[in-house]
Structure to design on (886 residues):
């Protein structure tokens, strides 16, 4: 490949016009009309993967303009004989010139996001295509995102191409299994810093095709083979921190200059380095790329993105304006561990197609837990894993909208819909069961074989299970059929039979948690540990393995009857595990007495599952929470109790029960926020929950005292972002002075985050006109960053304002196809969940059901997301009805 552009030759090319192509496709080749359909079809991807190889991109972009970037790309590749016409992908606004193997191409066709080059311009063996193009730059909806920092008038740019937006940036073959070597050349204003997937080779003032001296062109080394969605750059007047201990990999951290003083650069750099070092040792595979840098990207719509050589992290999740709680610290660690693990699972070995998205996301989450366990001793990593994954996975997998882990995908245009709890939370939970089933040694050997066999290439779930099966000698065919290809999850019930004071038998039975149309049936292979808990003798833990829909727990018969039975000790199984009635009663009375953190967290989870199964009244759960909160010393479990207790009181309980319990709830929170015997994180999370759930005049008065500074927290006046949270809550409650407090906070807060926080807080006001204005902006304002929208959706849909926001429910759902097609990966489910799950009435449920009935043509991926959110609304209505709510 030629490593520099022939600018003079490109300048001689003539402008192109779209016209019908010539050339003849070989017999049996896919029809041109099929290959040119909108999006990237599986058929097109297969055809290209079979006929193209050795792809390289030499890419230059001019980043000196505000709203667009001009570019030049040269792509070289090996092409099979008789491959037919060539179809590349490009959805940018302008394609100005095209040359194939040095000759102008005039008879190409450009439509539906594809560029078809007739076969007569190409040859067997190596080919070279060159093109001039333009791509857009904007705050949202483009491949290059622009963020304008209002605090110092600086501008920052960064790309986001996952899952298939590389072709929105430049002409390419945008599919994960056509890996390519990239060479970036980026021209940016003087004073900016620029980074890309590989190391900088040089920076000079010359730009291709331009004689000005007002820009610097940054030239980067060629990358290893990577998928197009992993290509990335960032540019702007970033502040940087570089670290290169002797014998260690150098790492540079980039963050916007206005937030320099807030960045804990040493901690972030050390955590990334520790993660990479640990993974090298655990996998037995060296770090696979030339560098590991990181960017704290402003208004970034994801938690992180694993671009090769330059991981992007969400700025707001990584910069703490107040001392962080344990939950926040562990969350930041988990994100780092997840994204660094992707450098192996996802970047080195990439799924062949996005139907196997779980291969990278599930493993990155699972490996993050293993890293926490090793690198953060004493943090109870598997308790964290349970709390962060199981509730989210179960919450989706029990709905009619659930999907298999492997999600069939006909077109990459629909890949955004595959993201969600099934791949992020169910998949790592299933992987934990897989490791337990085959044994940790064999599991690790299988992963090593998988990574080395498919390095810098692509693989499928069958490849992974085959490698682990070979290493373990355990057949995994049924495991793949039930956990990877089958939608839904098992429900495991416990049946304890007693003979006086002794156990006669202990049996676990499984069935699908919710029957699904078209379900093939069958039992899930599962290995679990069953705990028999006693207060007056050591607990007994017995293994059990399903080889059918029930299993007799060997060794239980003849033991003294336990206080309780927990059928998933250690959290190795995947499913909804229900204790028998006798055990459930003991757990409700004694859950706080259980010493082991993971076990206590799971028992709290069992109580919550009983609430959602309408077998435990929400008011009873709230009473248990109020009883246990004052003595709960584990910060993560206390956070769980706070979250579930708040839901029980604010969403599920009847008005009478809520009125009865609310004063005690607020009193416990206020006392815990000031209890010096508790750690900072416990006090801060209690304060945060008090702010979020304050209702009574007494609690509102406390919030005003915090805002005025007459009530201190941790010996000082509350800081940001707590101040904005208080203002937002007072606005949502319709406090008479709330607007004045809002205006005062706008004047008071001069930090870089002030505009975003003010935007989020303002929509909380119980005012139909305010809601309507925001709703219009959400969908029609191209200057509004997506992250600002998602950050404000909760305040817009305050559950206490459900009657006010109900009229927006139907309009919000009528725009779902547009949202899917024009917004980023996580925007669609965030939008759907915010508007549906904030509701709690039968009227809202009827609104959702009418929309589904009246729109049978709603695409299946969108329908599933709606059904997932609908399940929570349906459960809420059922729980409230059972609890006697109006």
């Amino acid at each position: 490949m030629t490593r520099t552009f022939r600018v003079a030759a490109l300048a001689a090319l003539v402008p192109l016009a779209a016209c019908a192509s010539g050339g003849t496709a070989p017999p049996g080749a896919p029809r041109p009309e099929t290959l040119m359909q909108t999006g990237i079809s599986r058929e097109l991807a297969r055809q290209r993967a079979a006929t193209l190889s050795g792809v390289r991109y030499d890419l230059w972009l001019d980043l000196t303009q505000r709203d667009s970037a001009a570019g030049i790309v040269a792509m070289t590749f090996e092409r099979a004989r008789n491959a037919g016409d060539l179809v590349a992908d490009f959805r940018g606004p302008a394609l100005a010139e095209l040359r194939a193997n040095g000759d102008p191409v005039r008879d190409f066709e450009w439509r539906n996001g594809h560029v078809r080059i007739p076969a007569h311009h190409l040859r067997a063996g190596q080919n070279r295509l060159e093109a001039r193009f333009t791509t857009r730059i904007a705050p949202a909806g483009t491949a290059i995102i622009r963020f304008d920092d209002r605090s110092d008038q600086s501008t920052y740019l960064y790309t986001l191409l996952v899952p298939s937006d590389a072709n929105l940036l430049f002409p390419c073959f945008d599919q994960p299994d056509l890996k390519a070597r990239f060479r970036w050349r980026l021209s940016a204003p003087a004073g900016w810093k620029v980074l890309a997937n590989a190391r900088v080779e040089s920076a000079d003032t010359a730009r291709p095709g331009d004689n000005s001296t007002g820009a610097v062109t940054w030239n980067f080394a060629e990358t290893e083979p990577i998928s197009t969605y992993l290509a990335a750059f960032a540019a702007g007047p970033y502040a940087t921190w570089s670290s290169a201990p002797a014998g260690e990999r150098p790492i540079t951290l980039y963050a916007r200059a206005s937030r320099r003083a807030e960045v804990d650069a040493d901690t972030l750099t050390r955590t990334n380095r520790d993660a990479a070092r640990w993974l090298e040792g655990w996998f037995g595979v060296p770090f696979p790329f030339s560098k590991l840098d990181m960017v704290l990207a402003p208004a970034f719509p994801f938690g992180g993105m694993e671009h090769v050589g330059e991981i992007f992290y969400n700025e707001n999740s990584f910069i703490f304006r107040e001392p962080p709680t344990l939950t926040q610290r562990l969350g930041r660690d988990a994100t780092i561990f997840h994204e660094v693990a992707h450098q192996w699972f996802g970047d080195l070995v990439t799924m062949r197609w996005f139907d196997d998205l779980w291969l990278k996301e599930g493993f990155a989450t699972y490996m993050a837990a293993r890293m926490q366990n090793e690198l953060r001793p004493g943090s109870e990593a598997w308790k964290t894993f349970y709390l962060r994954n199981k509730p989210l996975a179960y919450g989706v997998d029990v709905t009619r909208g659930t999907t298999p882990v492997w999600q069939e995908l006909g077109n990459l245009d629909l890949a955004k819909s595959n993201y969600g709890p099934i791949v992020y939370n169910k998949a790592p939970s299933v992987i934990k069961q897989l490791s337990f089933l085959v044994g940790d040694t064999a599991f690790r050997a299988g992963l090593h074989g998988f990574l080395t066999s498919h390095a810098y290439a692509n693989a499928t779930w069958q490849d992974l299970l085959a490698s682990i099966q070979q290493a373990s000698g355990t057949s995994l065919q049924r495991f793949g059929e039930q956990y990877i290809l089958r939608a839904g999850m098992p429900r495991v019930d416990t049946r304890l039979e007693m003979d006086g004071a002794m156990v006669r038998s202990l049996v676990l039975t499984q069935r699908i948690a919710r029957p699904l149309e078209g379900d093939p049936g069958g039992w899930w292979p599962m290995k679990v540990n069953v705990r028999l808990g006693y207060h007056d003798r050591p607990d007994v833990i017995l293994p059990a393995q399903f080889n059918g829909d029930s299993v007799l727990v060997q060794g239980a018969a003849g033991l003294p009857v336990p206080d309780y039975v927990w059928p998933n000790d250690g959290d190795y199984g995947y499913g909804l595990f229900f204790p028998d009635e006798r055990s459930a009663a003991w757990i409700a009375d004694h859950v706080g007495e259980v010493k082991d953190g993971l076990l206590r967290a799971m028992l709290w989870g069992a109580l919550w599952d009983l609430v959602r199964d309408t077998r435990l009244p929400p008011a009873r759960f709230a009473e248990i929470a109020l009883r246990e909160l004052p003595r709960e010393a584990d910060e993560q479990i206390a956070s769980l109790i706070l979250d579930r207790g708040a839901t029980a009181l604010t969403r599920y309980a009847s008005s009478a029960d809520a009125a009865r319990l609310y004063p005690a709830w607020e009193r416990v929170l206020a006392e815990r926020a000031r209890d010096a015997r508790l750690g900072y994180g416990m006090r801060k999370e209690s304060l945060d929950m008090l702010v979020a759930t304050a209702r009574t005049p007494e609690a509102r008065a406390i919030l005003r005292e915090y805002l005025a500074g007459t009530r201190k927290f941790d010996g000082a006046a509350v800081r940001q972002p707590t101040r904005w949270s208080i203002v937002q809550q007072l606005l949502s409650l319709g406090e008479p002075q709330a607007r004045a407090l809002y205006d005062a906070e706008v004047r008071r807060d001069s930090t870089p985050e002030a505009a975003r926080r003010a935007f989020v807080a303002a929509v909380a006001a119980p005012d139909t006109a305010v809601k309507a204005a925001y709703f219009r902006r959400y969908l029609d304002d191209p200057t509004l960053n997506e992250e600002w929208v998602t950050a404000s959706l909760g305040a817009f849909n305050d559950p206490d304002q459900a009657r006010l926001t109900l009229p927006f429910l139907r309009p919000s759902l009528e725009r779902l196809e547009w949202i899917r097609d024009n917004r980023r990966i996580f925007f669609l489910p965030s939008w759907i969940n915010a508007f549906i799950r904030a509701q709690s009435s039968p009227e809202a449920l009827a609104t959702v059901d009418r929309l589904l009935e009246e729109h049978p043509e709603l695409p299946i991926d969108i329908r599933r997301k709606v059904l997932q959110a609908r399940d929570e609304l349906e459960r809420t209505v059922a729980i409230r009805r059972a609890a006697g709510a109006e």
